[in-house]
Amino acid sequence: MVIACQRRSPVLPYSMIVFVPPVSEDDEAAVEMILDYDDDPKNEGLPLDRRLHALIDELAQIYPRSASLPPERCDECIWAEEPLELNGRGRLCHFALSGRHDIDPLIERISEVALRRGLVVFDQDRLRRPSKADFGTDTDPGILH
């Protein structure tokens, strides 16, 4: 992991996970499945799922990466760890958000984009699943099982 840029004051990041379905219908079992997937060494080195790449591309348009900001605006970057693509593997990607921002609206917006793409979001407090109402035209058919 690479820290996004030199920050003026140390702050703790907030981490959330986006996962490519399917997951268990039971929330506790789904969270356990996601965490087990994250901890499983056989998933190390798996290429990041294309749906997560597409999510990252869209999120980077909304919230620019530190490299695309001038140095004097570095603190505006919400990403605590970059490059975003290296924070995941296979069906899972971590998004570490800088603790110096108002986290709740960021979680909501990132979740909204991920859910519209048919992805599952676990933000430490709750598990969110896409519903048919969340889907946009950019979602692959058959993602929900």
**Shape, principal axes of CA atoms:** globular
Radius of gyration over all CA atoms, rounded: 15 Å
Spatial strand order of the main sheet: 4-5-2-6-7
Question: How many helices in DSSP terms?
Answer: 3
Write a brief caption for the model:
The protein has 3 helices and 7 strands.
Which helices and strands appear, and what pairs or packs with what?
Blueprint: E1 2-3, E2 14-19, H1 27-39, H2 50-62, E3 81-82, E4 88-89, E5 92-97, H3 103-116, E6 120-122, E7 127-128
Antiparallel strand pairs: 1-3, 2-5, 2-6, 4-5, 6-7
Explain what this protein looks like in three dimensions.
The protein is an alpha+beta fold and 145 residues long. The chain has 3 helices and 7 strands. It has one domain. The chain starts with a strand and ends in a 17-residue tail after the last strand.
For this entry, give a set of tags.
7 strands, two-stranded antiparallel sheet, disordered C terminus, 145 residues, alpha+beta, globular, five-stranded antiparallel beta sheet
